[in-house]
């Protein structure tokens, strides 16, 4: 699926830009960007100490919201790419600008990220595919079975949802333990 390749490439490029900007852009910009992102995460972190299962639900619903927006707003073409770009950029900036070591930060991302990121990328690529099918049908007047394509792609949302639920569980219950289990401190 070429849109999966395009979506993955966009995520990787934006990740690299996040890393590069941490070193080249004014540090105040990256610091403010990370601070704003941390502010968004504060309710999730606070809920973890109160009720870990509620935190799993919050993380899951947030990621599912992102996946569904990427999928259903795919016809805008811009939204899925913007979501991928922002997520990649944040990851890159966080890894390099955070006061913690890159290894420590990677260990806080990889356990759940290996599931979460592909699910988000897949949602964006499916939404993009639908968008381009609509463009082909209505702008280029090509014969495209958009309805059938949409129905076929909606079926992917079930495994994407399951993967995001599993990723949320791992993010809350397993990811925080990994650095300590490996003897790596911040």
Features:
82% helix, 0% strand, mainly alpha, 186 residues
How many angstroms separate the termini? 39 Å
Helix content: over 70%
Quick check: average pLDDT?
A: 85
| SS field, number of helical segments | 9
Strand content: under 5%
How many separate domains? 1
Helical/strand content category: mainly alpha
What is the ordering of alpha helices and beta strands?
Answer: HHHHHHHHH
- Write down the Rg: 18 Å
Characterise the protein shown here.
It is a single chain. The chain has 186 residues and is mainly α. The protein has one domain. It is 82% helix and 0% strand. The chain has helices at residues 2-24, 27-50, 52-72, 78-97, 102-107, 110-138, 146-154, 157-173, 178-181. Helix 1 (2-24) packs across helix 6 and helix 3 (52-72) runs parallel beside helix 6 (110-138). The chain is globular and about 55 Å long. The model has no long low-confidence stretch (mean pLDDT 85).
Task: Provide a short characterization of the protein structure.
With 186 residues, the chain is an all-alpha fold. The protein is built from nine helices and no strands.
């Amino acid at each position: 699926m070429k849109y999966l390749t395009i979506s993955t490439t966009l995520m990787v490029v934006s990740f690299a830009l996040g890393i590069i900007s941490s070193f080249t852009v004014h540090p105040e910009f990256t610091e403010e960007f990370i601070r704003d992102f941390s502010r968004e995460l504060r309710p999730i972190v606070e809920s973890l100490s109160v009720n870990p299962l509620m935190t799993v639900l919050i993380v899951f619903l947030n990621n599912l919201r992102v996946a569904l927006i990427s999928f259903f707003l795919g016809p805008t073409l811009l939204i899925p790419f913007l979501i991928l770009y922002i997520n990649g950029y944040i990851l890159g900036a966080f890894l390099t600008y955070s006061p913690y070591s890159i290894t420590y930060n990677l260990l806080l991302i990889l356990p759940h990220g290996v599931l979460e990121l592909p699910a988000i990328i897949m949602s964006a690529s499916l939404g993009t595919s639908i968008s381009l099918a609509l463009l082909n049908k209505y702008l280029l007047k090509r014969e495209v079975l958009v309805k059938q394509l949409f129905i076929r792609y909606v079926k992917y949302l079930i495994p994407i949802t399951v993967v995001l639920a599993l990723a949320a569980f791992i993010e809350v219950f397993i990811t925080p333990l990994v650095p300590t289990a490996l003897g790596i401190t911040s």
